[in-house]
Amino acid sequence: MNIFKLDRKISDFKKSVKSDYKFKTKQEIKQLKINDNLKELNIYNIKNMKQKNDAFIFKNIISYNIGFRIINSKGFNSLGFKDDVDIFFCDNHHKVIETYTKFKPNKFTQYHKNATEVYVISKNMIKYLNIKLNDYISLEKINNRNY
Asked: Which of 32, 60, 58 is nearest to 44 (CA)?
């Protein structure tokens, strides 16, 4: 019986290592577009909680040229973050419905009923990119480069 448990733990570990590698290397990178103006900000998609934990928790991965889009999220928490971040919520038409600047670590946003995606970027980037309410956000595919 112990051999089977050990074998299962080893296979689970291999799967987790493989999924971590897949997230870091095979992730499709897109560039942020605000009201049809292309910005120099690369966006990674996050589709589930495991990818969110792998990307954010206790890491210094958020920089001025990298951001993240969390799909199917109506709220956000910054548990385990090290630095402040800027956050904006978009509805299903990709229109900005709420912004948070300098969002502190270990905090929660309120529930946004109409939100379908959350963008997480480094602090002060909302002001720098001039993102306002009712702006339209889209992503454009870029050439595969190593970042």
From this structure: 32
Note whether residue 98 is domain-resident: yes
Tell me which amino acid residue 18 is.
K
Place of tokens 């992730």: 27
Overall domain count for the chain: 1
Which domain does 80 fall in, by range?
29-141
Torsion sign across C-alpha atoms 27, 104, 50, 74: negative
Per-residue pLDDT, averaged over 86-114, amounts to 92
Reported residue count of the chain is: 147
Measured from the Cβ of residue 62, the count of other Cβ atoms closer than 10 Å reads 21
Question: Nearest-CA neighbor of 74 among 56, 57, 87, 84?
Answer: 87
Please check whether residue 19 lies inside any domain of the structure: no
Q: Could you tell me the pTM of the whole model?
A: 0.75
Q: CA 126 from chain center: how many Å?
A: 15
Tell me the pLDDT tens digit for each residue of 79-93. Answer: 878 888 999 999 999
Pairing label, strands 37-46, 66-71? parallel
Six token digits for residue 9: 């733990």
Reference 94, options 111, 76, 116, 68; nearest CA is 116
